[in-house]
Amino acid sequence: MTACAIEGGSAGAAATAEPEAESGTEPAPEDSRAGSGPWERGAEPEPEGSGDPVRPTGANAPGRPGATANAGRPEVSPAAGRPPGPAGDAPLPGAFTLTADGAYGARLTAAPGPPGERAWYPERWTLDGPEPYAVPLPLDQPEEPDTQVAPLADGRVLLRRRVADRQMFSLLYPTGPGTGELLLGTVESAEMTLLPPSPDGRCVYALSAGDHHTSLWLVAGGAFGPEEVARIPGRCSGGAWLDGAGRILALDRRAPGGGPVKAVAVDLGRGAEVTPLLQIAPDSDDRLLLADADSGLLLIRSDAPGHDRLGWGVLGSCLPVRFPECLRLADAAVTPFAVQPGQMLMPESCAVALRIDGAAGSWLGVWRPAGRRLHQFAAPLGWAAGAGYWSRDGVLRLPYANGATSCGVAMLEAPPDVEPSSGTGRPGDPEDGTPSSAAVSAPAVCKPVPLGQAPLHRVARSD
Questions:
Q1: How far apart are CA 384 and CA 94, in angstroms?
Q2: Is residue 194 predicted with pLDDT exceeding 80?
C-alpha cells in the first residue's frame, strides 16, 4: 500500500491490503480467585506472558484523594474458557472519556437506587497523582442518560446536553462544596457527537451529520462559544487525531452520493482542507480506528480482504496494510482503544490495547505488530470497557469502579512476545518461517502515490 503521509501538514492517500497469516490465538485462562480483588474471571496470557503484570490501585470513596488503596495482586492460574460477565452486584459505569495524556477522566454515573429511578450526574477522575480519586459534579437537576462528557487538561468537564432539537454545552468544575457551571452556548441540531478530546488538552470538537454534509464544531476552547469550523461533504463519523498538536483530524466519510466509507484527513490549520487518507480498494469500507502520532501506527478496520477485518499500517509508509490473523476471533469482536506512545519511528514495537467483546462479556487483549501474538487478560471488575491509556514504558492503566472500590486504576504491564526462532537465523521469523512485518526493512520516507502506481512488487508476500 501507499499509506497516508503528512508532509507540510497535509495527509495523502493509502492503499492496498493483504491478509497476514499468523500464529493462532492463545488459550483464554480463567481466574482461580473469582470475586477476589477487582479482576473478573477470564482470559489470561499464555505461559510466555509476563507472569504477574496486574497491579490494582484505588480509592474507597469518590472525592477523597489519599484514601486507602486496594492491596495485593490477584492470582491467576491458566485454564480454558472465556471470562464470564461481571458480577450482578457490580455497578455498570457509563462511557468513560480520557484526556489525551490520561491525566483526567470523566463519565456519567448514577446515584444508588432502583434502575428506573437513578439520578445521573457527571464525575471527574484525577489519574495523574499518587492515588486516583473521583470528584462528583452534580447540579440542581439530574442529567439525562444520553448526556455526553469530556474532560479537559485544566480539570474542567465539558457537558453536552440535548434539549428538544438543540444541543447545549457547558463546563463544570468543583467549587467548594458545590459544582460550578459555565454555559458555553447552544447549537441548533437534533444530533451531535463529541469527538475524542484534542491532544492540546483544551479543545473539544463535535460532529453534526446532515443529509448532504457534516458540520464540524469547536464546542470548547473557542473564543465565543460553539463555533462551526468546517462543512464536509458527505456523512462523517468516527474521529482520530493524527498529530500531537490537535491540527489534523481523521474522519470516516461516506460521499454525498453514497458508496463506500473512506477515511479522510481534515487539516484544521488550512481551513479544514479535506484530503484522502485510506484507499485500500475501490469498493471497500476503510475506517481509521486509532492513530499514534509518535510512531505513525494506524489501526484500521476494512472489508478489503473480503470481510470486515482489523488491520494496521504506518503513516507515510509504502508498505501495505496488514490484517493479522491473530486479531480475528471466531466468536468475539476486537476493538483497539489505546496505543503505547513514545515509540518514535518504531510503530511495530508499540503495544496496542484491545477490547474483546463476546457472549460472556468483555475482556482485554494486548498485541504488538512485531510480536504477532494476541495476549488475553481478564478485565478489572467494573472496568469502563474500552477506557485506558498507556505509559511510555509500556504500562496499561485501566479505570474501574465496583462495589469494593469506587475509583480505581488497574495496571497491566505489556507482556513480552515469543523470542524469534533460532532455526531461521532471521530476527522476527516465527516458527513457521513466514517473515513477520518486523523482518521487512523500513522503506525510505516517500510521498504517497495513487493505488495504480504503488510499488507493490517490492512487498510481494506469500502470506
A1: 7
A2: yes
Strand-pair partners of 251: 264
Q: Please, are residues 362 and 12 in contact by the beta-carbon 8 Å criterion?
A: no
pLDDT, position 84: 39
Beta strands of 272-413 (E only): which ranges?
273-276, 286-291, 297-302, 309-314, 321-324, 332-339, 352-358, 361-367, 374-377, 389-390, 395-400, 407-413
* pLDDT tens by residue, 236-288: 999 999 999 999 999 999 998 889 999 999 999 999 999 999 999 999 999 99
Has residue 195 got a pLDDT over 60? yes
The pLDDT of residue 132: 94
Provide CB contacts within 8 A for 116, sequence distance 6+: none
| Length of the chain (residues) | 463
Dist. CA 85–CA 232, nearest whole Å: 41
99: helix, strand or coil: coil
> Over the range 139-177, which residues count as b (16 or more CB within 10 Å of their CB) and which as e?
eeeebeeebbbbbbbeebbbbbebeeeebbbbbbbbeee
Which three three-digit cell numbers place residue 229? 469550523
Tell me the backbone φ, ψ of residue 7, rounded to 5 degrees: -130, 120
For 31, counting Cβ atoms within 10 Å of its Cβ (0-12 exposed, 13-18 middle, 19+ buried), the class is buried
pLDDT over 80 (residue 161): yes
Our CA angle for 389, 391, 396, nearest 5°, is 50
How crowded is the C-beta side of 314, counted as CA atoms within 13 Å?
Answer: 25
pTM value is 0.74
Residue 451 has pLDDT above 50, yes or no: no
User: Is the Cα torsion angle 146, 152, 157, 162 positive or negative in sign?
Assistant: negative
Residue 56: φ, ψ to 5°: -85, 140
Strand partners, 380: 39
Backbone angles phi, psi at 197, to 5 degrees: -55, 145
Query: How high does pLDDT run on average in the chain?
Result: 76
The mean pLDDT value for 336-345 works out to 93
What whole-number distance in Å separates Cα of residue 50 and Cα of residue 220?
41
